[in-house]
Sequence to fold (145 residues):
Amino acid sequence: MTEQGPLRAAIVVHKSLDPAAVANAAAILMGQLAHLEPRLYATDGVKGADGVRHAGIRYNTVILAGRPAQVGKLIAAAAEADVPSAVFGGAGRGLHNSFEAYQELVGRSTAEELEVFAVGLAGPDELVRSLTKQFSSYRGPVVAE
Fold:
């Protein structure tokens, strides 16, 4: 990805996820996206007059939600469009900080087999918008009344 225009980051989750799982997935995916697209963040961060460091995010980031099948299709669409992306799912649950076991599990599995419930992507603003236009803003889990 060599475009130099405005970027956009999007985290897309299954709409039934609870807020804690969404927060966890978003934090982990943004960390990975920052490595894949370093222009998302200011290199030196931002400091206030009092010296307190503030988040140095340079471009919009949205948290969106959709049905599991939509999230699965987005993974393929992002790859086809050559947009930097990463997925997050249940593969690491229960591995208790054992990165090597996680890496081995992921290495022998497909995304479809690993219960992916969130995808993050970052790239040119218009392209990310077009890939994510069918998703709505995440508003928390749908609760039956």
